[in-house]
Design a protein that fits this description.
This protein has 330 residues and is of the alpha/beta class. Helix content is 56%, strand content 7%. The chain has 14 helices and 5 strands. It has a 5-stranded parallel sheet. Helix 2 links the parallel strand 2 and strand 3. It is elongated, with a radius of gyration of 30 Å.
């Protein structure tokens, strides 16, 4: 077989297999792919409604559609046609399972088989699988999809966002990167799910709105990267972040930017809230009263002890004799 990155045109006695990424617009082909399709004697595909076929037809190229043949029959047809012509097969949306093995088997039985080469039309871009996540969520939420997914709301989904976030933290603490990746996927699902629910509201938003707002915020709060800011150390970056965030709040009329508790959700676990307040005070150079800090340390110790007692009781509940738990009281 020819080298996959080979750029020479497909000529008589050659069979080109054009493969593309389903996550890239079908008309956006590499230069080697365009050279192959425009220089071929015959372009072949399964059906006229394949996205790549439609794109090439719009470009004025003639494509012959030969139907849904089994891999062995399709391989034999392509190899036979390529014996006397420059043939390019336009890969199907399902990636033509079994075709490459069938072609290898077909050419191996011939004394003078045509050269076969892979022509890469497009590669996946970084983040391309995120489009798959959005498409899968749309399928689950649409008519004919999953009845459970279809009835969810922002309110019903809220507990799962909290739960999945803590599972990420547990995976990080365990040091298993694959587990971290899997749990982050569950958090990503919640983001996409909420965006899909919001998309159905009259005044809602979609996943592109979420992504756009995030990009705007990252650019705005990193002037040392995207503009002419001069923050050079992590500490300076944190200070700039706080300053810019305070300006944004003031511009929005939110007020309270000087309050160390401003913007911290009441539902945030007390330990996290305490850490956030102390970090804000450190970045802003606020000197806290020592008596208050001592009281905070005592309260955090009491909270940790209470959490340990809850876990102990839960452990006892889960290890009780199931038979005893099922028997009614006398």
């Amino acid at each position: 077989m020819g080298h996959p990155l080979q750029r020479r045109p497909v000529t008589a006695g050659r069979l080109g297999l054009l493969v593309t990424s389903p996550r890239v617009a079908p008309g956006l082909l590499s230069s080697s792919a365009w050279s192959a399709v425009t220089g071929a004697d015959r372009l072949l595909a399964r059906a006229a409604d394949e996205p790549l076929v439609e794109a090439l037809a719009d470009a004025g190229l003639a494509v012959e559609c030969i139907g849904d043949l089994a891999p062995a029959a399709l391989a034999r047809t392509l190899v036979d046609l390529a014996a006397g012509a420059a043939v390019v097969w336009l890969g199907s949306a399902d990636a033509d399972p079994g075709l490459s093995d069938a072609i290898a088997s077909e050419v191996s039985r011939l004394e003078s088989p045509p050269d076969v080469e892979l022509v890469v039309g497009s590669w996946d871009v970084q983040g391309g699988r995120l489009l798959d996540v959005v498409a899968a969520m749309d399928r689950l939420r649409s008519p004919g999809g999953c009845p459970w997914d279809a009835e969810q709301t922002h309110t019903s989904l809220a507990p799962y966002l909290v739960e999945e976030t803590h599972e990420v933290l547990e995976a990080i603490a365990g040091g298993d990167l694959r587990a971290v990746a899997e749990e982050l996927g569950d958090v990503l699902l919640q983001v996409v799910f909420h965006a899909r629910v919001a998309e159905e509201a009259e005044d809602g938003f979609d996943i592109d709105t979420v992504a756009g707002l995030l990009v705007d915020k990252l650019v705005r709060r990193h002037p040392h990267v995207f503009a002419d800011g001069d923050a050079a150390t992590p500490a300076q970056v944190e200070q700039e972040w706080e300053r810019i965030k305070a300006q944004e709040k003031e511009a929005d009329g939110a007020g309270g930017a000087d309050d160390l508790l401003h913007g911290i959700p009441p539902s945030l676990p007390p330990e996290l809230a305490a850490n956030k307040v102390l970090a804000r005070a450190r970045r802003r150079g606020v000197v806290l009263d020592q008596a208050t800090l001592t009281a905070l340390d005592a309260a955090r110790a009491d909270l940790a002890a209470a959490q340990d007692r809850v876990r102990s009781v839960l452990h006892a509940l889960t290890t009780r004799d199931p038979g005893r738990a099922a028997r009614p009281s006398p």
